[in-house]
Structures are given as C-alpha cells and as structure tokens.
Amino acid sequence: LTTTGFSTVSYGNWNASGILVLIVLMLIGGGTCSTAGGIKQFRAYLMWKLLAWEIGRLLLPRSAIVERPVWEGNRRVFLDDARACQVATFVFLYLATYLFGTLVLCACGYSLQDSLFEFASALGTVGLSVGVTTAGMPDVALWAETLAMFIGRLEFFVVILSLLKISGD
C-alpha cells in the first residue's frame, strides 16, 4: 500500500468491520496543517472533548463556571464558544456532504458499502478505491467525487469564503 493513491490491496475481500474502520479513518484524515483531507485529528479530539464536557456540565449546578482546556500542540489553551461552534459547524458540513455524496453514488446504482467507502476516500482525498471510481462511471458520480476532492482538499470555509468574495465583486 502506498500513499500515492494506488493500491494493490483488494478491499472487496475485507469484512464489514475492517471497511468501517477504514472509512472512519478516512473521514478523520490527517493532523492539523497536514496536506491530508478529512475532519482532522484535532477537530475529532475537540468534538470528543465537547461531548465529555457537555455530559459533565449536565451533572453540575447551572451556576458552575467550567473551564475547557485543550492541548493544541505543546501548549494548553482554553476553548471558547466561538471556536467550539466553528468546529461543530465544520464537522456538520463535512458529514452532511459525506451523506449527500454517498446518496448520489447509491442513486447511480452502487452498493451502500461501496458508496460509503468511495465517497469517504474522495472527500478525504485519500485515493483508495474498491473499483467504483473509474473513467466510465456515471457523470453525476464523477462530478460529485471531483467536487468532494476539491472541497475536501481546500476545506469548506476556504471554498465558501472564496466563492462569496468572487460573487461579491
């Protein structure tokens, strides 16, 4: 297996658990500032921390003041509501796009498992395939994956802000 997007592994022979783990890893992607696509490890870590803090907050009195420290690299920072909202919005957009793209591939006649795998690979700019992504695939599926690779590589907020800037001039 290489990092070039070419693979000698036949994922069709993997069991569903292995495919699911690989899909989750493709959705998470790389680390912050890496060239990999995906939600990114730091955002996944923040979402986990936010979940834990929210559950803990439910056990505290309403008047309690709670600090939300996280490690960002080698420094300890405190997460404010704006940053938490930004991360949650990004993760929501990412997963909504993933769901929509998977549905597009399913509508083109591909199985749910293959569609989940292929669109996670496209959106995460991973390059793995179970054989769905080919030059002969339906145009709708090809354009959906192309757009996913573009958005997944540049990230949603960059693309959205760029489009807003272009349309505003």
Walk me through this protein's architecture.
Helix 1 (16-28) runs parallel beside helix 4 and helix 4 (112-123) crosses helix 5 (139-154). The protein has 169 residues and is mainly α. The protein is globular, with a radius of gyration of 18 Å. It has helices spanning 16-28, 41-58, 81-107, 112-123, 139-154, 156-168; strands at residues 69-72, 75-78. Strand 1 and strand 2 form a beta hairpin. The chain contains six helices and two strands, in the order ααββαααα. The termini are far apart. The chain has a two-stranded antiparallel sheet. Helix content is 59%, strand content 5%. The longest helix has 27 residues, at 81-107.
